Amino acid sequence: MNDTATDPIIKVRGLVKSFGTHIVHDGLDLDVRRGEIIGIVGGSGTGKSVLLQQIVGLLKPDAGQIEVFGENVRDSSPEEYRDLRRRWGVMFQDGALFSSLTVRQNVEAPMREQLDLPDDLRKTLAGIKVRMVGLTDVAQTKFPSELSGGMRKRAGFARAIALDPEIVFLDEPTAGLDPIGAAAFDTLIGQLQATLGLTVFLVTHDLDSLHAICDRIAVLAEKKVLAVGTMAEMLEVDHPWVQEYFHGPRARAALATKGER
Amino acid sequence: MTPRATGSKQRQSAVVEATVANGCYVLSGDLLIETIDRLDHDLRGARLIDISQVAQLDTAGAWFILDLERRIADADKGRLIRGATDTQRQLLDTVRASMPTEAEITEHRPTITDRIEAIGRATANAGRVALELTSFLGEVIAVMGRLIVQPRRFRMTSLVYHMQQVGWNAIPIVALMAFLIGVVLAFQGATQLRQFGAEVFVVDLIAISVLRELGILLTAIIVAGRSGSAFTAAIGSMKMREEIDAMRTLGLNPMEILVVPRILALVLMLPVLGLIADVSGLIGGAIMSWIELGVSPAVFQSRLVSNTDVWHFGVGMIKAPFFALIIGIIGCYEGMKVGGDAESLGRLTSTSVVLAIFMVIVVDAIFSIFFSLVGV
Fold it and tell me: A GO CC term (chain B) (predicted)?
């Protein structure tokens, strides 16, 4: 097992993906390091979510290599894939909670699927995860339709970390939240990342999140990863879209608030 | 950072051990969600927990340690756990803040009073639905009245479109259904009537049952399943995507645009469909009588004309617009009740069909009583 810190935990090489005649990725390379929070940004339709879905094996790439934990996702046998899934958690936009289950049952679902735990223990552990993401005990027995958008996202996050995964994939976790809720969610991601030693793959549009918690940022444009680096490095990139994104009025506002902190 | 576990095979085979020495509970190995179940929570008198030999620790492991700590109870906490690394300490603190409180949430078991309360609620709810349906009907009539005064606001295109949807497109299924009903009636009637040598009365049997009851009732049931559900789903999904709210803010009246054309289309088309059902039911019956009983089409026709009162047909046709109104009102009303989630859309669509069919049959029974009282 390649467990040294230098080896990337996710390694994407020469990824090609197209839908019909529309090419989304063409020769995309990306490395994600163990223990970092990487933010994936890009305009609408540049395939941020498609990239995420390919890494977790929901979509098949047309060509190219995707290695997670040094194992090829595409060629893995069902057992190996099951093993991989055990080691990552995915939070979809808006939580994607199972609507027929309560919040706690949602968090219990991966435990039920992957492990053989006594009922009481599973309930207790699920309860801890629900509280860790900042939901109250009252919310535990509620159904997703009875929750607000922010609570649903938190519950989705709780389900993603139910099994203490090594990587969490978050798809726009702060989209549709008010600034206070979004900031609280950023803090939550940062805290749990530090505590649980997570690697976070964060698809986002939220400049504040990028400033606040991301170690590195990868920009998707022109069908590949255009630039990877820290926020400071991004500001230096000489590309019109990147310039506009990181130097636009909203980016400057986000930078300014960052300076005040 | 704690070295993390690798694959689940390695996790499954991870080793964990607990020993008690000098009043100290010593844990060693990997304290993970897969392994904690192998340990018991018996402290055997230990007053301290030593985790300096724990290699991997996850949230479940942290919970296990904190659960032990809780059992030691009295002494001052925080000093009970020894040998934690910084990362482990941080994890322990986070989990401690999320530990279950003593008053664990217990699942609520329904008692007798709860059940009685549920019956009461269901009854009150049924009453409310009846009231709301009536007020919805009133609103539809009011809007229709306004449209008569201002006919320019009426949506002709929409009406024609829905007439095609609920009427024209339903003709094949309605005709086939009625034809088969005619066939079945003739066949079953023939076997019974032959015992009395009264085969020819099969014409009366088919004519009365199809024209008076079955033709229109079964057509209404098919239309309720076909168009009532479509009304609920269409209006419901518009409600879900806030299209209805958008209409209101633009000064458009959803009753005028969505509800009235649909209901009017049904009211106009259901009698037509009923007529088609009557005709194909009679044709089905006639063909079967010919094959099974040798009653020729000519005999069938003459007996039908001479022996069947035209009021049997009239009774069926009078009921059609009422059935249409019931199906349309319920379909649109349930659609308007859809909330923000997709689940309510599915639930209300099925409610709409069930309620519409039920109400159609109830009203049919009321009509039967009414017509027998007035002697038709």
Answer: ATP-binding cassette (ABC) transporter complex
